[in-house]
User: Fold this.
Amino acid sequence: MDRLRQELGRMFCRRCDYCQPCTQEIPISLAMDYPSLVKRLPPEIIFSGFVADAMEKATNCTKCGDCEERCPYNLPIQEMLEDYVNWYRREKTKYQGQTYSNKRIPSYSSNNGIHPG
Ligand code: SF4
Ligand code: SF4
Assistant:
């Protein structure tokens, strides 16, 4: 278990952008930062600002795998993006279902464990 936690702890994007260019113009490093952004930014930014733009673009991933071949840290980018996009979608649905006065910071425990959160 400790070894697994250590591996997960190393699974983060260094934002070097060596994975670019993405044929779908996905801002990979920004989308890969979703777990951190969702903790730091208000939901208005997450669901309608630049984070939303990045996550919506990430839904267009064709899983070509080109980015993973270029990542010097061997990150499973496709899998991580899929996880973060699903996480984003779930929280967006919850957020949109709330009344304005009842809006709250999204839950951080909803990822599937790929990222330690
Ligand atoms: S796998 Fe997805 S994110 Fe990576 S280069 Fe291809 S389309 Fe872009
Ligand atoms: S190459 Fe890897 S570590 Fe660098 S920005 Fe892309 S996903 Fe992140």
Q: What stands out?
A: The mean pLDDT is 84. The CA atoms of residues 79 and 114 lie 8 Å apart. The pocket of iron/sulfur cluster (ligand 2) is lined by residues 13-19, 28-29, 32, 71, 73, 75, 77 (CB under 6 Å).
